[in-house]
Amino acid sequence: MSSKQNQTGSPDGGLVLEKEPKTKKPTLYRVLMLNDDYTPMEFVVMVLQRFFGHDLESAQKIMLHVHQRGIGVCGIYAYEIAEAKVNQVTQFARQNEHPLQLQLEQE
Predict the structure, then answer these.
(1) Contacts of 4 (CB under 8 A, 6+ apart)
(2) pLDDT tens digit string along 6-20?
């Protein structure tokens, strides 16, 4: 047989299989909420429910954690989603005249 490919598509006569593309898992980011002395606790709970999908109980736990420790995790997302949530919450807080601050931290 010549060195040209045979009917199976491979020079050595073996079957050529396409490799499955490996999808890389996106890098995840924590959305962190920082404590301040001005944003009402009720507003923080509402933000955690509205923008991060927490139920009342978990939102209250996160709010108390932020209040007592100075920082807390709102959620963990791919970068684009985390960034969008930070922007949405920051804009919403400013519209309601609250200095609430969020930041991102790579997981």
Answers:
(1) 11
(2) 455 555 666 666 677
